[in-house]
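Now read the record:
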Amino acid sequence: IVATDTGGLITFINKRAKEILQFGRKKVVGTPIRKHMPQTGKLVAACLETGKTQSGSQIFGKRVNLVVNINPIKERRKTTGAVCTFLTMDEFETIAKNLKTFSSLDKQFQTVYESSSDGIWICDPEGKVISINKASERLGGIKRQDIIGKNVSDIIKNGLYSNYVTDEVIQTKRPVSQLQHIKNTNKTVLCTGIPVIDDRGNLSLVVINERDITQLEAMKLQLEEARKERERYKDELAELSMQELKDQKVIAE
């Protein structure tokens, strides 16, 4: 970081800037920035004159190549100086690669998040909804714009869901699972809340997974009916067998 006044004189320079520019113990505060950084000095002059930011300028010097951003310092809408922040080209390229990697990972996450057949809710430590995926919209018969920013407890009060695990996860900081009924779609879902704990042991997020088990519940009922029917047939066969034995008048010891 290097700061100047309205005349382009350096008023501040930090240790890292001295290292990058190889100033050593040279006294630079109070001297014109153009004297030490001619190309950057021109950009500073333009910033001071127009009051506009000069972003992402590449400076190729004899000793080092830089990527420079220059912002005006303003007091009561009047430009009173400029602040230059810069990185070496090598540092900038490393950051750019990391950003590219992050962007790729974010894209992968979004793809998995939105294509999941299970509903996913992400809430903050106070229970406020940060995001929901497409499956949650479909399962709940809801729109994310109507849900995001609201507290889960308020959503339950409105009767949309029979209950929710968020509050219990926040209180216990442990995974919680329970069944719940969704009023809008008449679906039964298995809801599992997972706490996300940061390095300090504090709760940072609550991730909720919804799995539609409506068909599973229907199959369970059908199996129960089939079991009852089987028991009824079994009892009838037993009665018929006993009746047949009585009709045959078997004498036994």
Q: What stands out?
A: DSSP finds nine helices and ten strands in the chain. The radius of gyration is 35 Å. The mean pLDDT is 86.
